[in-house]
Amino acid sequence: MKNLSILLSFVLILMASSVLAQDFQGVATYKTQRKIEIKMDSTKINDAMQTKMMEMMKKGFQKTYKLTFDKTSSLYKQEAELDKPQVGGEIMMSFGNSGDDVFYKNIKDKNYVDQKETMGKKFLIKDSIASIDWKLGSETKHIGEYMCFKATYTKQVPKRKSFSFSSNTNKEKESDEEKNEEEPEMEERTITAWYTPQIPVSNGPSKYQGLPGLILEIHDGKLTIICSQIVINPEEKVEIVEPTKGKEVNQKDYDEIMDKKAKEMMERYAPRKGSKGESISITIGG
What we know:
- By secondary structure, this protein is α+β, with helices and mostly antiparallel strands.
- The protein is built from four helices and 15 strands.
- It is globular, with a radius of gyration of 22 Å.
């Protein structure tokens, strides 16, 4: 009986909302943050410097995005930022996307186009939207003025992803690096979303979508995305146009290119065998 009552509530809200949503647009602002684990080992870096570096790196994962949407499509774009934080010498720790990065999604045609500029090169990633097997829950809460319902799904993810820079080049270290070349061990992760049927679009931030209402909050491992503002039918009409700049690839090809670039970067900054001097190790997990 309780489940039937919840279902009827969904239907009533959707019916009422759909009447108001025959022809509308919206702009939602999202703030993201990611918890990170940082381990640094150096004879040259004191506690104050380590704390400063950690704070800079954490701030690099705090971003603001705008999701412009209508009933069938959307654009998700990061807001302009100040200069990226720089950590030590020639190594630039880059966390943000460029101002040209745009994620376009068409939930009717079930495809997306992700325009990215990575390491000085533009890519146009075109692929199909993956179906998400959401489990609708009975829990509710308010986010701003909107009543939201809870939904979850599970997926397989690598147990941990980390990056290390170290001058320790002994055989034991090399053995560890060889192990890192193997396929990562996988684990099951539960993703939690909060969505509102009051905004009847099956959409949300980034690649999250597929629920009977706009997704306002996401918890995906160490990543949190929360909607902070929504404007329905803004005075100035917004255009939702599919991006077109960059080398066209699919998602699998892009991921392989990025894996290769990451390994090249690690090799570039890794010290040569036999070199001596200060030892600095930075590990970022999560």
